Amino acid sequence: MKILELAEPGPLRDCGVNAILAGTKTAMTGLPAIYYKEGEPLPTAGERYSVIDSAGKPVAVIELTRVATEPIGAVGDAYAQAEGRGYRDAADWWSAHEAFFRSDFVAEYLGFVPDFDDGTLVVTQWFQLIETLS
């Protein structure tokens, strides 16, 4: 089973993990460049992940139910709300994701700051919570 570390350890990861555990986060987004950097193929429906908290402890298992690579401009309000972080709409979601994907954390990892426009490809991933680990 693959490991899922949302964002970097700290408040952003904790918020996402808590939303998964509460059942309010049922989607997540990645950049294709991150998978390429890791030498991994893009995710596919049916894959399971062990969700890791900020302390490095496995806290849940999720299974991807739908995965698509699509332009960020095509992402709608329903997906934004499924991210479980309280986004009002797709524009609010876009703003938060642009800030994260252009952050020093991601830029250091990738070795560059990604460009963002309506055509920027993102990997949208819907999932379900399979198990909460104690």
TrEMBL record:
| Positions of the ASCH domain | 4-131
Pfam families noted in UniProt: ASCH
Q: In the record, what lineage is assigned to the organism producing the protein?
A: Bacteria, Bacillati, Actinomycetota, Actinomycetes, Micromonosporales
Which species is the source of this protein?
Actinoplanes couchii
- Superkingdom of origin: Bacteria
Kindly give the InterPro entries that the UniProt entry links to this protein: ASCH_domain, DUF984, PUA-like_sf
Q: Which SMART domains match?
A: ASCH
Q: What's the protein here called? A: ASCH domain-containing protein
